[in-house]
Design a protein that fits this description.
The chain is mainly alpha-helical. Helix content is 41%, strand content 10%. The chain has six helices and four strands. A two-stranded antiparallel sheet has the order 1-2. A two-stranded antiparallel ribbon has the order 3-4.
Length: 160
């Protein structure tokens, strides 16, 4: 699975809104502060409004603000709102008629792809926007018992 540029930009813009703590932020400011091209930011804004993640206000004092609680909104919610269901393979739609791959019932690898998708869904579901942005946390695998949210992350350059 690839995280699309649009999803990356959406998460950056949402980070700006989490930091704004309920205040309205203009699309231009969110775009400039996060190195997102303005025209792309407008498109992302529409997608986030359509998904119910942000509210948008027109006018000279308009902009956007979170319509959801960042402490309850997971990274998975945003990823799926922007780029659709989390998928590692196209086994379900790879057949000639757009249906499942004809080899799926006997495929040795399909269970691996299905498990990878489940792990990614669980991983992205295990952390909220607030935890990532405000608390600088990220999930790690906790000894085979699911994901534990820890932080702040230590970067390689910090070790030098």
């Amino acid at each position: 699975m690839d995280i699309s540029r649009k999803t990356d930009y959406a998460l950056r813009m949402l980070s700006e809104l989490v930091r704004a703590d309920g205040d309205i932020v203009s699309v231009r400011v969110a775009a400039e502060n996060n190195n997102v091209p303005y025209s792309f930011a407008r498109s992302i804004q529409h997608d986030l409004v359509r998904a119910g993640i942000i509210d948008s206000t027109r006018g000279s004092h308009g902009g956007m603000r979170l319509a959801v609680d960042p402490k309850a909104t997971t990274v998975r919610t945003v990823v799926e709102a922007i780029q659709g269901p989390i998928q590692v393979s196209s086994c379900d739609t790879n057949g000639d008629d757009g249906g499942p791959c004809p080899f799926m019932p006997s495929c040795h690898f399909n269970p691996i792809w299905c498990e990878a998708e489940r792990i990614l869904r669980d991983y992205f579901s295990s952390v909220t926007l607030y935890e990532v942005v405000a608390e600088h946390k990220h999930p790690v695998l906790a000894g085979g018992q699911g994901f534990e949210v820890v932080g702040p992350r230590v970067l390689a350059s910090d070790d030098e």
